Amino acid sequence: MNIKEFKVEMEKIVGKNNVIEDQDRTKDYSQDSHYPLVEGSISQIVIIPNNFEEVQQIVKVSNEYKIPLIPKSSEVSLYGGTIANNGGVILDLRKLNQIRTINETSMYAVIEPGVTFKQLQKELDNYKLRILPTIFSSSDSIISSYLARYPTYSMAKFEYTELVANLEIVLGNGDLFRTGSWASVKSPPVYPYGSSLDWFRIFHGARGGLGVITKASIRIKPKPLIQEIVSVPFSNHKDFINFVYKVERKEIGTECILLNKVNALNYLEIEDKTKGFPNWIFLICLEGLQRLPEEKIAYEKEALSQLIVEHKIKVKMDDLIYKLEQTILKEFNEPRVIKKKAYDLPVYLTLNKFPDVYSIIQNELSRFNGNKIELGVSIIPVERNRTAYVEFDLYTGLNTEQEITEFKKLFSNLGELAVKAGAIIDIPYGPLKQVIYSKLGNYLALINEVKDIFDPNNIMNPGKIEKEVI
Question: What does the alpha-carbon distance between residue 252 and residue 262 come to, in Å, rounded to a whole number?
């Protein structure tokens, strides 16, 4: 590995100003929001390509020199996905930020990896269309957020679960590859399934380990004419299970989220958690599109009122709840960065399993002898509550090496216990890697085989998806 020669080759491709070697600047790429649960090394250099052609050249030269590449397209990095495990080069894609196409008829947009939610939504406003944000959107890359499978707030229609229609990828061996209908020369990028085998899902969750995404077509939807939030409080976590199932099966509302008191007050940026507020609150967004919007919201509110009466729920409105409703309504359209120091354990489970998993998490935290930890919970039903995304947020300060070591062990135990109770963890980061990978068996072996096919020299974000991470 001759990094000096490699740097010279990179300067020929992208220009000297787009190759960063100064350690004071490259160290900014060595940590993310989940430090110290995930730790990385400082990359040797950072390369900033200007276009797709440069990306392909960079990947081909990296294969010749066997230099690892770590793609990065978001300002805020999460779960260790864009930091170097053991050296390597950061491929900063944020200059690839062109919106290529907005198609109002087929409801898709073609964008480059550096395009952010805020950037695209500003353009979609001209068409009365909207992007479907994830819970980690803010100024992040749309493509990386969608491919990382960061959850969107629950949508009424199942087609919105496939938010990426087609992909253009520079594979780890330098070849260009397109998925779905895009693979056909004259077909528009609207249909995720191509002829014969379907490839598009293989790049979801790959965390840049198979290639570099240079372009994608994503789904968009009409902007509602009317939006209204309805909130339903609960005193006990067991009380909302059946209620949420019924709301979702009746297809009431679009986006929704369930928060415990800790996370609700954090949305309001209230530090005093003793403040009077419901222990749990379910927030449902009702929206009316172009056809009879008032009537649609009226019958959904009536259906929701009937369920509230049926479950004998006392709905009480005050200024704080009203403020939360307005905050969440804005969040559904323009997600922001919540100022919190929390380490999240993200799991998927069927909502009926939540009481058991929640009890296990609480019991384990009560036994922990380290720092006092505050537990926040956010729940988002998926596909009308076929399953649910549950985020356990652990609010704590880690100030010493001993605290970090003890917390990592706790975090690993929480993941182990959640999995044993029937939860699924689809982002195996930090201490969760060993927990998850130790249970995958032949599944993990096949991941390694796929990695070898698409990235034979193991240059694409090594250590993120394959067995070697453990």
Answer: 26
